[in-house]
Please model this.
Amino acid sequence: MARAESTKGQTRIQREKTEQILEAALEVFSKYGFRGSTIDQIAGQSGLSKPNILYYFDGKEAIHAVLLGRLLDTWLEPLEHMSDSDTPIDEICAYVKRKLEMARDFPRESRLFANEILQGAPRILSELQGPLKTLTDEKTSLIQSWVDAGKIAPVAPYHLLFSIWATTQHYADFDVQVHAVLGDCKEDCFETAQAHLDHMFRATLRPET
Amino acid sequence: MARAESTKGQTRIQREKTEQILEAALEVFSKYGFRGSTIDQIAGQSGLSKPNILYYFDGKEAIHAVLLGRLLDTWLEPLEHMSDSDTPIDEICAYVKRKLEMARDFPRESRLFANEILQGAPRILSELQGPLKTLTDEKTSLIQSWVDAGKIAPVAPYHLLFSIWATTQHYADFDVQVHAVLGDCKEDCFETAQAHLDHMFRATLRPET
DNA sequence: CATAGTTTTGACCATATGGTCAGGAAACCC
DNA sequence: GGGTTTCCTGACCATATGGTCAAAACTATG
Model:
């Protein structure tokens, strides 16, 4: 009997196959959403048979749950890194840069998340109201303290975060639209985006002197 | 035989029922995506029977197609309104405001669009590469001319548009996340957002003197 | 109200999909 | 090599879902 949860006491095969399935599932779920994806698709993508997949996971939901579970940690990590600093504008812009790099390097994760939220976050609403809210509350306080100290312009901290999330993840989530409009540009696109966002948030945060 | 396409030569009943179905379908599709929605759900939402819905539309795809078709016009209209002006910053900020109001007043339309793009825009890619690209090319030229004339700061026009789309639609598409983080605020949320975005884009566009 | 046309429905069909299971194939251990 | 455990599969099942159809119900009109 497999159905491993933690990475404890797993055989080599269990670890490999589990990973293989999750990799394929990420590919599929991020492309078609939860309901739009089938176990057969995941089977095809991973090169395993459907029953074999169900040998390692308790069902479609379970695979999705594992992916979402891992995701939130990864997703929140850059924000956790943002901490007090003498140069808060640099600190925030570093966060923006990091977030944009994640959109470039992990577009599937971004889309998986976007799909979930778009459809009302039925499976991770509690995570949003828990860990996510806690962390954002903490960081908005930090931002507010910078505002109060006159180190950055008086912005609405929550909405600043929303703007950062929206603008960076846009390049992953709306990738098709971006490329339809831009023609094609590949990596160039992210460099230009990085410059643009850096300009935008620096301008937004620069205190009036 | 019904299956009306244009609004020409339709009976009252045909017009009413067609509208009723589209309204219900928008509700359902925007909430669950195309594959996640069933004709039965649309039937339930509209109070009609499934066969009755299929009497008016050639199938699930057809309903979705009509919704998407209508959508793009509505969606592009605010951008079309942006035209040359002595005060380009005001012009752009008016566009931002308009776009945010649409996110507030038509969140279902926004999510329908987002769902479609997220999943690779299989049904409207050509629309993106056609009308959308044409319009954005036109408007980025306009923005570029403002840059060249020194009326606004030197921003990358395409990325400016992306930022506007991303930040405004975020309030519709990621509504669940916004409210999870913010607790609750209702209309207040949009007012604060409006102020924030206005500040942000004015700062971004203000030419260095 | 009779008739022609339109609208609506219950019953039905074909396929897709999530999931199960008994038994066969590999891998592991002695 | 033999036995035990783990891994894998073909065949199968139940349900959901998109879609059809003949006939009933309704509407409009002479």
